[in-house]
Known about the structure:
Number of domains: 2
Structural class: alpha/beta
Largest sheet: 7 strands, mixed
Radius of gyration: 21 Å
CATH architecture of the largest domain: Alpha-Beta Complex
Distance between the termini: 23 Å
Helix content: 25-40%
Amino acid sequence: MTTALPPTSREVRLAAVPDGLPRSEHFTVVRTPLPAPGPGQVLVRNRYFLVFPGLRTLIGGEVDGLPLPALRAGDVLFGPAVGEVVAAPAGSPLRVGETVSHLLGWREYALADAAGCTPLDDTLPDPVAHLSPGSAAYGALTRLAEVRAGDIVFVTGAAGAVGSLAGQIARLLGAGQVIGSTGSPEKAERLVSELGYDAVVLRGAEPVADQLARLAPEGIDVLLDNVAGEQLVAALAAARQGARFALVGALSGQLSPARAGGSAPVEIDAFRLLAKGVSLRGYSGADHPGAAAEWTGRFGGWLRSGEIRFPHVRIPGIDRAPRALQDMIGGRHFGAVVVEL
Length: 341
């Protein structure tokens, strides 16, 4: 058993279920006694954890069909994290000092089942890159949309954690033109200058369909959709014959103050789906078990060669985590949002 550990640890709890979008006042940072691992457990000192939109759905309680439970008042938040094993009982498959990933973020120290921890090697040059949600974009673009050389690809929510990688991945897979969407002129400029997007649809400036028709007059071959709503409708209007649409998010509904995070209704033209032979599929990593490992290997190679960037912002300190979630929901960050402990 490792010594010199602090007697307490801090964790973020849901103080009250909000009526609408969660804000920082709906959370509280609580100090609790540091637990000791029992058989089959380890104690992990978290170094980083991911702030992700799915928390909005868990807090809203609309979790039907999801593999994760709803969050109630008093519950500790959770999510992807990377940390170091600091205590483990005799016979544990994990060693003290080993770096692991797990799903018990939002706390400084996590008492985790050893079976729920994944040991990390040096495939990725920076441990924080293991928190990238890029496997969803990679899996959708390789398993569902199957990007081909010369394809015209449209990525909605391009400045988010998934979208900021999706455009780069599409290009590396051979796309001929990559168009993104965002609601911020500053983010639009960064998508082009830093991430290699050819053009950007600026949401709110004029109808998305009009901008997309101008930027891709011959239509689009692939949609990687993080948003749904108006942008999915516009993409369908621009679809070429045999276009492949992969849905990886539904932020238009998930982050709506009028909804609880578990629905994103949208009216689409079924006749156009038929006439154009468009495939429309939602991506689930559980349906493609090999995609995550394949992504990690390619991601590591691309990072080391400089062919891809991992856009993210690091927020220092657990005390700032609730505000980081509020700011992410408000679209104030570019790329993934990571709390650094």
